[in-house]
Structures are given as structure tokens and as C-alpha cells.
Amino acid sequence: MFVTMAVFAPALGPTTVDQNMRNSYGYETKYWDSDSGSVETILVGDANLGSLSQGNDRNIGPWTYDDYGRFHPFGTMQDGSDLFTFLVVGSRISLVIGVLSVALSASIAATLALTSAYYKGRVDLSMVLISDAVMAMPQLLLLIMLTTVLRESWINEVYSGGFLLALIFAFTGWTYMWRSIRGPALQISEREWIDAARSFGQRPTTIMRKHMLPYVTGYLLIYGSMTLGGAIISIAGLSFLGLGVAPPTPEWGRAVNLGQNYVRTGSWHISLIPGILITLVVTGFNALGDGIRDAIDPQSDSAGGETAGAGGGA
């Protein structure tokens, strides 16, 4: 459902982001005015001002129409814009940033793990020291510092700051994935076919790509899918704090932040609905990781086996 929301975001929303929040006064909408008994025309921005959700007296809740005949599946936000449109477009932002950060982390982790497993010795020791140094730093504080320092840079303008977030997540989170696949990579490097490839004069890069990488790909899929959920909730957390994706680009954490003052009022939906969606998505990606692990390694603990199997196709 989350991927469907992200892929078909423009078609699912009852309006567009441009009409909904970016240039609402540049569009008009028609509605039936019961007082005058005729069809009237009003600017979308003015219609939003008449559809605010700011408490019990001024509220357009989920699955209702406003006074201008516009349907709002999740209600409206505090500025009168449609919450459903905000969330479906925000799901695309979260998914793109999450997938990009996980892909970069997996690439870095796989490259370093295969290199350290092949050469061992000082190379492996250097990788361990570097990963320990990165893991010793508090990740949340590091994310906040880097997003603040690089906020004025040109790279923050790419994809409304999403590309910068993906890079930061990748270069601060690769250590956990590297730790997960380092052991299997070391095991593979001791197999007979690796020694045979060396004796035939194959280059180290060829050996790592053709004879070692396929046996750690399963681990990358498992930990990558689990890391994706963590990346999405981290993106939401930074947006909640006012960092990360630059406004007015929709992001789920920003919706939670905008509606926190109305949680105890009739406009509870502004924060509660995106909060529930974040929980479901993160839980879903964690369950996906467990499912991939069970499919790759049927003898693992989660699959009901007595002992953990080799995993990863090894």
C-alpha cells in the first residue's frame, strides 16, 4: 500500500500539490452556493481559508466534504489544505530518500566488506577501526549537525534537500550493514573456489564481484529492507524537528509537527493519521526483512528452525 501511494501519488490525491499548497491562489474551483442557488467560482486559496482544521469550532474531519464541495478523505490541515494529498505525495518523498540511502549504504558496506574479507590483515583491521569510530558518534546528533551545517549548500537544493538526507544517512549508517555482512564475507573468502580463482590469476576485483558478492547479496536484501524502515522514521523525525526536507515539500513528520497543537481537539487527525501510517510502514518493512530472511534461510530462528542456518545463499 505504501509503495502504491508513492508510485501513483498524482492520481490518488483529490488535488495536486501545486493547487493544494504551493500556488493555491493561482487556481480556481467551482462549487454550488445554496444561498444564491447558483454555481460560484472561488480561488483555491480562499477556499482553503474557509476549510481550516484548527479545533472543534473550525474543523474538516476525515471522510467529509467542505463547504465548497471538495472531498477530503483524511480531512484538512491547519491551513485548509488537503491532508490526503499531503500524505500521498509525502510517501513518494520518504520512499525515494529511503531507497536511495539504503542503496548507497549497501554499496559502501558491500565494497568495504568484500575488500576487508579478501585482503584481511591490516585492511580488515583498518575497516574495523573506521567503523568503530563512526558508530561511536551519536547518529541523531550527527544527522542534526550535518543537516544544519549543509543547509545553505547547493546540494541541499537537489530534490528539496532529499538527496542531501540520503547521502547523510548512507555515510552514517553503512557501518551497521558492514558489520552484518563482514562475517559471511570472511567465511566465503576461505572457500576452495576463491583459492582456485586466485591460482588461475583472476584479478581481486573480479573474484570479489563474481565469486564473493553473490553469496552476501541475501544478507544485503535482509538488512537493507530492515534499514529502510529506520531511514523512513529518521526522515520523519528530522522533519518533525524542522530539519531535513525543505518546506513546503510534503513530508509525514512535518504533518505530525503541524498538528501536535490540535491533538486534544476535533482536529486530532492532522497528527494521528500520519503517525499511524509511519508506524505501519516501519513495521511493514521490518516484517519484509524477516520474510526475506525466512525465504533465504528456512532454518533460521525466526523460521522455526532449531539452529540458525548459513543464510545468504552461502
TrEMBL record:
GO terms for biological process: transmembrane transport. This is Glutathione ABC transporter permease GsiD. Gene3D superfamilies: MetI-like. It comes from the Archaea. Keywords: Cell membrane, Membrane, Transmembrane, Transmembrane helix, Transport. InterPro entries: BP-dependent_transpt_permease (IPR050366), MetI-like (IPR000515), MetI-like_sf (IPR035906). PANTHER family: D,D-DIPEPTIDE TRANSPORT SYSTEM PERMEASE PROTEIN DDPC-RELATED, OLIGOPEPTIDE TRANSPORT SYSTEM PERMEASE PROTEIN APPC. GO terms for cellular component: plasma membrane.
